[in-house]
Amino acid sequence: MITRVAEGELRVARELHDFVRLEALPGTGLDERGFWSGAAEMVGDLRPGLNALLQERVAIQAALDVYNSDQNLPKQGGGYEAFLRSIEYVVPEPEDFEITTTRVDQEISSQPGPQLVVPLLNARFATNAANARWGSLYDALYGTDAVPESGRLARSRGYNPARGDEVIGRGRRFLDEIFPLTVGSHRSATSYEVGAAGLVVHQGEEVTVLQRPEAFIGYIGPREGPSSVVLVHHGLHVILEFDRGHQIGARDAAGICDIVVEAAVTAIMDLEDSVAAVDASDKVRGYRNWLGLMQGTLTAEVVKKDASFTRRLHADRVFRTTSGGVTTLKGTALLMVRHVGHHMTTDSILDSQGNEVPEGIVDALITAVCGLHDLRGPRAGSNSRVGSIYVVKPKMHGPKEVAFACELLRRTEQLLGLEACTIKIGIMDEERRTSANLKACIHAASDRVAFINTGFLDRTGDEIHSSLLAGPMVRKAAMKRQPWMREYETQNVSIGLSCGFRGRAQIGKGMWPAPDNMAEMLEQKVSHPLSGASCAWVPSPTAATLHALHYHAVDVLTHQAELARPSRHRNLAQLLTVPLGNPDQWTSEQRSAEIDNNIQGILGYAVRWVNDGVGCSKVPDIDGTPLMEDRATCRISSQIVANWLQHGVVDTEQVEDSLRRMALVVDAQNADQPAYQPMAPSYDGSAFLAARELVMSAAEQPCGYTELVLRRWRRIQKRAIPAKPP
């Protein structure tokens, strides 16, 4: 039973109330009674409008279902677009404009680079992500398949000198490509020193300098033998570290022991798809970690083999300049926080009738209060140097929902005494109605928008659900080759640039899903900066370090300037082309494989979500390849199965059989986990039943979302788990 504290019309869970009173509010100058009174007023004022927007979603989907079930869609063409305009699925596009967002940190406005997204409930992940601004290139190459792992280069229990030499060689090639010398190569360097005019490189008896002397900006240690040298290229910094007593430096002619690259310049701390936050206790854990990040005090206890240590946020890096001054480089990524979608409610606060209040309102209020600690007091500016708070808002359907989010942030600013537009918004372009109206969505937030991105996973889930009755969809692997996908990825950049994002806001791209496949990532993910995107999501600090190389290879800001002239005309008809497949071309084996693949993924994800409260992790696919799974991937899989059931591509008996067979596969994949609870042979545990419901009720779930089902089963599971002794 949750103990609650009455605050006017609200009934606040004691755990959340204590957190706000004892941890979040002190030091902000805010009055506790005034805060809760204002919160109650906001809930009362904003909930009717929010409910109307959610009802509009229902009405639009109902109209789509009628249209699609009447077999109109195969005709498509102009009639389909006219229909979508008639139900205000597509709205008039505004005249050309440019955003007016001000006070945006350079990491977002003008410093392209990798972006991490991590579950905020995990303090270790959050600390690692914040610290991932800087990463060892040597470690990232040595410890992944970015360097071949067979033969003489294979990783071994101890240090493999041959592999190490290969890593060092690749590091030198990187330096030659990005920081070339006037004569010779970094491979021939025997020492580095700081001269009157900049960096001097010795190659035995020969002396040379950088072709671009301005790339050198600072150093640590004596000029004749620095311990660190800082270079910059495309706005990203690279640090050469020297130590001839180090295992690596001792083998290096110049004494270089590492090349440290500026990697995750921004990171999104997630309260949404990557977390399993189902009650007040979970929410407070996330809020407390966000507060620690804003105060600069977050720590995490780490145990590795037989050693343990406390991980803390990195301090800024201070270097001397040739003129005798100092230059300071930020030690941590610029942090943003992602709230839940408009449709979610939370039992952390109830109204006077006992109803859960909108969770997005609670997220806005509490994370902004925590954010005040970065705006005021002794640690002001630890995150944002310009005094802004950055919120990413997911799962919005069209410009009216964006406008509502902006009104929520405006009311939050008003309550907390903040200047207008202190809280910036990131628009997740991941729902079909948003991408069809992206320019209008940006216009609705034109004075505070700081981020847009594409999210293939959720966007595909909505693509399937919104046209569920139109016909059987193509198989999951074919989705990225569909016309809508190409237009979606292209127009996101094009519209962002036409609205003045260059030098003012981020344009992002989606996640690399295979965290162990770094060689493949290095080969493919350069496409994101080449598309004109200023950031792209990566699944780990190591991936951020390697993806940073792409932003040295591509001058994104210059590329954006080229892409913006002339403005590209978008192809709305292509964006709205529904990805219908032809089941007559699929064999029974192909149908079975598609269903097994999707159901195995659902089961593998649900068993960790429901039983362990893990919202995002590496989950082996049906072939055993670890993939990053979150609710977005689960949404796609459940919608494909629901769509094929709807159109008779497979039947219920086949799906039920797959659920049981794939449960055995997932059980085997997790057999080495000591606390793992097998789903077979009883098939009656919370995790299995949750996965089954995700499949069988997918067509009825609002917008095809998975969180309502997962949350309910996780709550059931938590109630069944004996409480830990104090």
From TrEMBL:
<dbReference type="Pfam" id="PF20656">
    <property type="entry name" value="MS_N"/>
</dbReference>
<feature type="binding site">
    <location>
        <position position="458"/>
    </location>
    <ligand>
        <name>Mg(2+)</name>
    </ligand>
</feature>
<feature type="binding site">
    <location>
        <position position="274"/>
    </location>
    <ligand>
        <name>acetyl-CoA</name>
    </ligand>
</feature>
<dbReference type="Pfam" id="PF20659">
    <property type="entry name" value="MS_C"/>
</dbReference>
<comment type="function">
    <text>Involved in the glycolate utilization. Catalyzes the condensation and subsequent hydrolysis of acetyl-coenzyme A (acetyl-CoA) and glyoxylate to form malate and CoA.</text>
</comment>
<feature type="binding site">
    <location>
        <position position="338"/>
    </location>
    <ligand>
        <name>glyoxylate</name>
    </ligand>
</feature>
<dbReference type="InterPro" id="IPR048356">
    <property type="entry name" value="MS_N"/>
</dbReference>
<feature type="binding site">
    <location>
        <begin position="455"/>
        <end position="458"/>
    </location>
    <ligand>
        <name>glyoxylate</name>
    </ligand>
</feature>
<feature type="binding site">
    <location>
        <position position="117"/>
    </location>
    <ligand>
        <name>acetyl-CoA</name>
    </ligand>
</feature>
<keyword id="KW-0460">Magnesium</keyword>
<dbReference type="InterPro" id="IPR048355">
    <property type="entry name" value="MS_C"/>
</dbReference>
<feature type="binding site">
    <location>
        <position position="430"/>
    </location>
    <ligand>
        <name>glyoxylate</name>
    </ligand>
</feature>
<keyword id="KW-0329">Glyoxylate bypass</keyword>
<dbReference type="InterPro" id="IPR044856">
    <property type="entry name" value="Malate_synth_C_sf"/>
</dbReference>
<feature type="domain" description="Malate synthase C-terminal">
    <location>
        <begin position="591"/>
        <end position="683"/>
    </location>
</feature>
<keyword id="KW-0963">Cytoplasm</keyword>
<dbReference type="InterPro" id="IPR048357">
    <property type="entry name" value="MSG_insertion"/>
</dbReference>
<dbReference type="InterPro" id="IPR006253">
    <property type="entry name" value="Malate_synthG"/>
</dbReference>
<keyword id="KW-0558">Oxidation</keyword>
<dbReference type="InterPro" id="IPR001465">
    <property type="entry name" value="Malate_synthase_TIM"/>
</dbReference>
<dbReference type="Pfam" id="PF20658">
    <property type="entry name" value="MSG_insertion"/>
</dbReference>
<comment type="similarity">
    <text>Belongs to the malate synthase family. GlcB subfamily.</text>
</comment>
<feature type="binding site">
    <location>
        <position position="430"/>
    </location>
    <ligand>
        <name>Mg(2+)</name>
    </ligand>
</feature>
<feature type="domain" description="Malate synthase G alpha-beta insertion">
    <location>
        <begin position="159"/>
        <end position="233"/>
    </location>
</feature>
<feature type="modified residue" description="Cysteine sulfenic acid (-SOH)">
    <location>
        <position position="616"/>
    </location>
</feature>
<keyword id="KW-0479">Metal-binding</keyword>
<dbReference type="InterPro" id="IPR011076">
    <property type="entry name" value="Malate_synth_sf"/>
</dbReference>
<protein>
    <recommendedName>
        <fullName>Malate synthase G</fullName>
        <ecNumber>2.3.3.9</ecNumber>
    </recommendedName>
</protein>
<feature type="domain" description="Malate synthase TIM barrel">
    <location>
        <begin position="335"/>
        <end position="575"/>
    </location>
</feature>
<feature type="active site" description="Proton acceptor">
    <location>
        <position position="338"/>
    </location>
</feature>
<keyword id="KW-0808">Transferase</keyword>
<feature type="binding site">
    <location>
        <position position="311"/>
    </location>
    <ligand>
        <name>acetyl-CoA</name>
    </ligand>
</feature>
<dbReference type="InterPro" id="IPR046363">
    <property type="entry name" value="MS_N_TIM-barrel_dom"/>
</dbReference>
<keyword id="KW-0012">Acyltransferase</keyword>
<comment type="pathway">
    <text>Carbohydrate metabolism; glyoxylate cycle; (S)-malate from isocitrate: step 2/2.</text>
</comment>
<comment type="subunit">
    <text>Monomer.</text>
</comment>
<feature type="binding site">
    <location>
        <begin position="124"/>
        <end position="125"/>
    </location>
    <ligand>
        <name>acetyl-CoA</name>
    </ligand>
</feature>
<feature type="binding site">
    <location>
        <position position="539"/>
    </location>
    <ligand>
        <name>acetyl-CoA</name>
    </ligand>
</feature>
<feature type="active site" description="Proton donor">
    <location>
        <position position="630"/>
    </location>
</feature>
<dbReference type="GO" id="GO:0004474">
    <property type="term" value="F:malate synthase activity"/>
</dbReference>
<keyword id="KW-0816">Tricarboxylic acid cycle</keyword>
<dbReference type="Pfam" id="PF01274">
    <property type="entry name" value="MS_TIM-barrel"/>
</dbReference>
